[in-house]
Amino acid sequence: MQAALAADEVTFCASDSPPVTSMSSLPYELIQLICKQATNVLEPRVAVNLSSASKELRVSTQAVRQQLLADHKEALALCLKVGMRSCKQLREAKTIDWRGKDLSAADVALLGTLGSVLPALQSLSLFARKAASLEGVQRLSAGLGAGALPAVTYLSFACMRVGDAGASALAAALGRGALPRLETLNLASAAIDDAGLVALAPALRRRAALEHLILPGNPLGDEGLGALVPPPPAAGAAHPPTGGLTKLKLLNLSETQITDAGCAALASVTYSCALPALEKVVLSGTPVGGAARAAVQDVYHGARPHAAGPDIVMEMTDHLR
Asked: How far, in Å, CA of 316 to CA of 45, rounded?
């Protein structure tokens, strides 16, 4: 069945359709531009048909069509590997949960290059085997250009070894304009330390829609937290600095190395109203003491007399992982 599906989906790419007379009157350069813009690895039929507008165009785009065919076959092989029957199913998917699919680094990298042709995707959860995860996120992020994954609001690399290199690559992708609607980022147990969070933090602070940041089980500490939360405003400043996490509701830092000093920094930005939407901070399994936890709540209440303040969770809360 899988072999038949693969053959059926790619044969049209190899054929030379008759010239499309309705386009033959268009300028040659314009048709070339249209063909380039229409190129979609998951739906190559449009570009192939456009290239048949004239014999000259068919000849000049032969190499492009051959490459498109090869790329389409590769994408189809990935679809079949994860249990999808066609590239159309991937193109129209709203949720991708490929945990337990034995993904290789090449598979994850290929998915990154498809980010611009997945307009319906809203939720993406990945997990690659240990060897592949060492470079998987880095290679996936490298393929995400401006506007890639335009509808994704939930992204999870939980239990993948993202590390400093992966965090930096993800930051670069966000900086290029990928994932413009990101609301939830789950990087639980992703081997991200202070250096990784320092690299990622500026890009996260520019994600205005970010509501949930899930970082438990990472070896990060006060330095990383200090880079993530915006500093308090300078003396006499009327407003806090722009570019902060103004919609952040959940910050999960359980089983990290955050200490009382990090909690004090969090209290200072809470007082500055730089995290106005914050509802829950998870600090279970950290060295933070009860006094530091209370300080965050007290400072928050002092800055917002009519608010209860964020819920500082010291116990393990599984559903937040």
From this structure: 51
Which tokens belong to 126?
């990945």
Q: Are 179 and 149 in contact (CB under 8 A)?
A: yes
Q: Where are the alpha helices (DSSP H) in the chain?
A: 2-14, 28-38, 45-50, 55-60, 62-81, 87-91, 105-113, 130-142, 163-175, 194-205, 222-228, 260-271, 290-303
- Spatial distance between the Cα atoms of 7 and 158, rounded to a whole number of angstroms: 35
Element containing residue 98 per DSSP (H, E): strand 95-103
Fold of 93-320: 3.80.10
Is 68 within 8 Å of 83 (Cβ atoms)? no
Per residue in 122-144, pLDDT tens? 999 998 766 666 788 999 999 99
Instruction: Return left, alpha or beta for 193; rule: phi > 0 is left, psi -120 to 50 is alpha, else beta.
Output: beta
Closest to 210 in 3D by CA, of 233, 242, 186: 186
* Domain ranges across the chain: 2-77, 93-320
Tell me the one-letter amino acid at 142.
Answer: A
> Which tens digit of pLDDT belongs to each residue from 264-298?
888 777 655 678 888 888 888 998 887 777 776 66
Q: Which two tokens stand for residue 31?
A: 């048709």
Which residues make Cβ contacts (< 8 Å) with residue 224, sequence separation at least 6?
192, 193, 194, 195, 196, 197, 198, 201
